[in-house]
Amino acid sequence: MSGQRVDAKVVMLGKEYVGKTSLVERYVHNRFLVGPYQNTIGAAFVAKPIHVGEKIVTLGIWDTAGSERYEAMSRIYYRGAKAAIVCYDLTDSSSFQRAKFWVKELQNCEEHCKIYLCGTKSDLVEDDRSMRKVDFHDVQDYADEIKAQLFETSSKSGHNVDELFQKVAEDYDQLYSFQQMTEEKGVDLCQKKNSTFYACCHH
Amino acid sequence: MSQKSERRGIHVDQSELLCKKGCGYYGNPAWQGFCSKCWREEYQRARQKQIQEDWALAERLQREEEAAYASSQGAQTQPTLAPFSKFEDKKTNVTTRKVTTVKKFFSPSSRAAPKKETQEAKAPSPSISRQSSVETDKVSRDFIDFLKNLQKPGRDIHKQCRVFLDTMANKKEVSAEEQSEYVQDFYQNVAEKLQVHFKGSSDRVERVMDQVEKYIMTRLYKSVFCPETTDDEKKDLAVQKRIRALHWVTLLMLCVPVNEDIPEVSDILVKAITDIIEMDSKRVPRDKLACITKCSKHIFNAIKITKKEPASADDFLPTLIYIVLKANPPRLQSNIQYITRFCNPSRLMTGEDGYYFTNLCCAVAFIEKLDAQSLNLSPEDFERYMSGQASPRRQDQDGYLSHVNNSPSLGQAYQNLEQLSGLGERQERVLEGARRLERDLIEWSDGVAREVQDILDKYPLEICPPASAIDSDNVENDRLPPPLQPQVFAG
Ligand SMILES: Nc1nc2c(ncn2[C@@H]2O[C@H](COP(=O)(O)OP(=O)(O)O)[C@@H](O)[C@H]2O)c(=O)[nH]1
Ligand SMILES: [Mg+2]
Questions:
Q1: Concatenated DSSP letters of A14-42
Q2: CATH annotation of A8-197
């Protein structure tokens, strides 16, 4: 039932309504808004095996509740994450400010977590250039500064969605083999340390 | 008198709530009326006995295991002999250490307590120890059966586990964080060895690790769950109280996307509540996690049936919060801490179980911090609901009653509540009667006193000196015989 083993935790972050859930849905079930429902009871957590070369890396993708009333709790979610996909809506500049907030949080609290910036709803700005409220080059500069990857995706058309998650899996795999080479350890280096993190949410 | 009449409402004698041992702490029915500390003291003996039984069993199993290996390896008895004798050495070591711990338990301070044990308190202890030792027996047997399939590494793991349990037995006094670190180090250690053996097949490593966790934690549970060295117990009570104070929170306030009016949904929610309550009864961290996962799956189902589409994270968290509020799961913080400290970390950090567990942590954090704003209420309303001056229930009484009809257990609970409040009223009436009786008694005794005084006033008692006394003039005193003297006999 819950037996699926997972290699890396990937957490979806971003303001409510930017399209986190849609992105996961598109990637995992290859659907947007409507479509035949797979045998899933929910889209909050998905384990997704991804081919990387000859290996398989299983990502555990954690969607988060975006509503502001639960925002204070979000930091409990990203503990121990190997990657964070920080989403912002290309048609909403305030959502990019929010994304910057998440980046700062991650930099402060979760230094081992790799950051992926993701501008969503690219189909909307393609149709009508005036809709774009977040400039690509500005974000690219910012991404370079924080050493993050940048993707612009559309869950509606599927544009760049697979590429985003594929990159996450490849980066993880590279780091993982690298660790194995240098430390000769098959398991996560951070695992033990992380186990005490949960304790922080209860004071 | 005035002090007494001030007592109001249902009065439960304070002494009934206190620990049976009279230490001043509150007792708990779950601990046979003792407080947790005295319970632990009282049952240390039973536990010690169980440990001894466990050891005996482990030794027996060990012998069986050796025999099994010997028979399976047939002719090559020679090479197995050497490690076997080494094992024997270790075993005698173990026995001597065991003796010293037994001695420690019979030191005067701990011997004094069980003597005073009351008959009723004594009764449950053998059954408890038997029950849990049956469980540990089974776990040990299953573990060994499982390891047999692994051949040589299985045997190494068994050895490693036994040595580890032995060292942990001497670490009962260390802090929970240190205990956690020992266990986590141990997991990592075993996992690394398995990783080498299985040449990196993480699935197989994980499967063995699950068994190791089960074996180790079944045995350690009692000494590391909610230990005295932490304030877990205090936090448990605080959360429990907090949840009780929030009994008035409705589905609407939390924006929970489930419709309890659908019979199927309300049934599923009852199952979710049962699952989360059941968590406390499990010993193995992974089994506790499984309860959370089961509860979560029910929640997802309830949402899916209500919304006719799969639930998202935005639907799930508020519903889980609602379920936690309704269930008020026993020892919630202790369970969360225990899982955090002793669960196999890879499961906790990345997998599906970990996701639901994290949501539970969030739900508890939300409940602790919850204020008017988080429920979209005005601060005034929030205050009134918290203080019990007003109840939002009245407004949606209809909805409330309708799901009572749908769910038998909720209906039962509602009935119980009615009966309880009926009992409360009756108790109040009895108390009122008692108070009246007291007043009557006081009046009566005052009345009697008044009458006596009246009579005394009317007929003052005059004591006239007697005309003559027998010995008024002791003329013949000197003729009386001398008083008897006690005679002393020597010898
Ligand atoms: N046109 C368009 N709409 C999108 C896209 N992704 C999400 N949306 C819409 O944005 C809204 C919010 O999406 P959702 O995934 O629920 O956001 P979340 O709150 O971040 O999980 C929904 O109405 C989606 O249909 C996209 O790529 N293109
Ligand atoms: Mg969402």
A1: -STTSSHHHHHHHHHH--BSBS---S-SB
A2: 3.40.50.300
At A81-113, the pLDDT tens digits run: 999 999 999 999 999 999 999 999 999 999 899
CA distance B151 to A4: 26
Across residues B54-71, what is the average pLDDT?
Answer: 65
Residues 304-343 of B with CB under 8 A from A: 304, 309-318, 333, 336-337, 340-341, 343
- Yes or no: say if A82 and A170 are a contact pair by the CB < 8 Å rule: no
Angle among Cα B145, B149, B152 to the nearest 5 degrees reads 110
- Rounded CA-CA distance A106/B86 in Å is 52
Give me the half-sphere count of Cα atoms (radius 13 Å) on the Cβ side of residue B323. Answer: 34
Whole-number Å distance between alpha carbons of A165 and A162: 5
Task: Give the C-alpha separation, A192 to B181, whole Å.
Answer: 8
DSSP code, position A134: S
How close is the Cα of A102 to the center of ligand 1, in Å?
19
Q: How far is B241 from chain A (nearest CA, A)?
A: 16
pLDDT in tens, A17-61: 999 989 998 998 877 765 444 445 566 899 999 999 999 999 999
Q: Which residues lie across from A88 on neighbouring strands?
A: A119
Interchain pair A44, B352: CB under 8 A = no
CA distances from B157 to A140, B148, B163 (A): 51, 11, 10
* Smallest Cα distance from A150 to chain B, Å: 24
**B322 φ, ψ (degrees, to nearest 5):** -60, -45
- Is B337–A199 a contact, with Cβ atoms under 8 angstroms apart? yes
| Interface touch A5/B362, C-beta < 8 Å | no
* Cα gap A19→A162, rounded to integer Å: 15
Is the minimum distance from the CB of A119 to ligand 1 under 6 angstroms?
Answer: no
| Run of H or E including A114 | strand A114-120
CA of A130, closest CA in chain B: separation in Å? 31
* Torsion A134-A137-A138-A143 (CA) sign: positive
Backbone angles phi and psi of A177, in degrees to 5 = -65, -35
Residue B198 contacts A, CB cutoff 8 Å: no
- Long-range contacts of B116-122, Cβ-Cβ distance < 8 Å, separation of 24 or more: B117/B42, B118/B20, B121/B20, B121/B32, B121/B33, B121/B34, B121/B42
Phi, psi of A149 (to 5 degrees): -90, 150
CA distances from A86 to A16, B123, B346, B349 (A): 12, 60, 24, 20
More confident residue, B6 or B183: B183
Question: Rounded CA gap, A179 and A7, in Å?
Answer: 14
Is A56 within 8 Å of B326 (Cβ atoms)?
no
CB-closest option in A6, A44, A76 to B313: A44
On whether the CB atoms of residues A139 and A96 are closer than 8 A, the answer is yes
Q: Check CB contact of A39 with chain B, cutoff 8 Å.
A: no
Q: Across the strands, what pairs with A13?
A: A86
Cα separation, B390 vs B384, in Å, equals 6
Pick the ligand that lies closest to the CA of residue A14.
Answer: 1
Provide the pLDDT confidence category of residue B31 given band limits of 50, 70 and 90: low
CA–CA–CA angle A155, A156, A160 (5° rounding): 45
Q: Percent helix, strand and coil across chain B, each rounded to 5?
A: 75, 0, 25
**Ligand 1 contact, A95 CB (< 6 A):** no
**Is the whole model's pTM more than 0.80, yes or no?**
no
For residue B74, the tally of other CB atoms under 10 A from its CB is 7
So what's the ipTM on this one? 0.84
